[in-house]
Amino acid sequence: MDAKTKDNFTFSFIDIIRQDLGEKQWKEFDRSIITRFTRSFRKNCLRYHGVVDWVYCSPIGALIAKVLKPFSLLPDRCTRNSKFEFVIQENEGTIYKQRRYFMDEDAPFTFTSVFGNKPRVHEEFSQGLGMYLKLSVKRGDLLFRDAGYFFRVGNWRIPIPRWLSVGSFELLHSNIDERRFQVIIRIAHPLFGTLFYQRGDFYDTRSLCKLSAVPVSCRE
After folding, report:
1. Cβ atoms within 10 A of the Cβ of 72, count?
2. How many folded domains does the chain comprise?
3. Which domain holds residue 143?
4. Cα separation of 124 and 130, whole Å?
5. Is residue 183 a contact partner of residue 202, using CB atoms and an 8 Å limit?
6. Which of 160, 164, 156, 128 is nearest to 147 (CA)?
7. Domain CATH number, residue 75
């Protein structure tokens, strides 16, 4: 099957990962993770459920989360054993990610972003705030690190100085088995230490799903 006949979403998502890793690291990449992101979902999106057993934010982290509340980036409180849903979906040629924390009986905390590779691999949140990403393979697992933050105004992405940022971002996607995986997220500041830390186990539902309405501010 050539690229033209492949599902545009699954091809473009895994292709961005492969392109950023390079062929040497791609060969070291866990095959189960590759399969997880390349199954044919012609009428579905990728959907994962699980439990974040630890959602942590330091007092300074909680303050930062409250300041950044209009961007809906991070929960501003600590909790344990929070149900979680992660959805990736292509819509009109754009890849959207949606994360939902079911922390209590209130409405879930929902975080939506755009993932792309033009002009370089990046993830953009609401209101134009975003970060560039560098991917690497660590003992077969997939590691995302920030490569700087930006604020988009129109077609311009204005770099945010590191000293004005929340610190360094890391996300490690570790494989457990064919359908299960663990994700660890850490945001650490050079002066204030770890501001945010999350750890959870998830599984591939392989079910039909639908991304909730995407905010206009997240569209390219």
Report:
1. 17
2. 1
3. 3-218
4. 4
5. yes
6. 160
7. 2.40.128.20
Q: What is the pLDDT of residue 104?
A: 76
Residues 6 or more apart from 58 whose CB is under 8 A from it?
A: 192, 193, 194, 195, 196
* Residue 111 to residue 152: CA distance in whole angstroms: 18
Q: What pLDDT, on the 0 to 100 scale, is given for residue 32?
A: 92
Cα 100 to Cα 40: distance, rounded to the nearest angstrom: 24
**Contact between 54 and 21 (Cβ < 8 Å):** no
Q: DSSP letters along 3-29, please?
A: GGGS-HHHHHHHHHHHHHH-HHHHTTS
User: Residue length, the chain?
Assistant: 220
Burial of 207 (0-12, 13-18, 19+ CB in 10 A): exposed
Predicted confidence at residue 1, as pLDDT, reads 40
The residue with tokens 């209101």 is 127
pTM: 0.86
111/116 Cα distance (integer angstroms)? 17
Element (H, E) at 123: strand 122-124
DSSP for residue 85: E
Helices (H), 22-168: 23-26, 31-38, 59-67
Spatial CA neighbour of 75 closest among 55, 58, 60, 59: 55
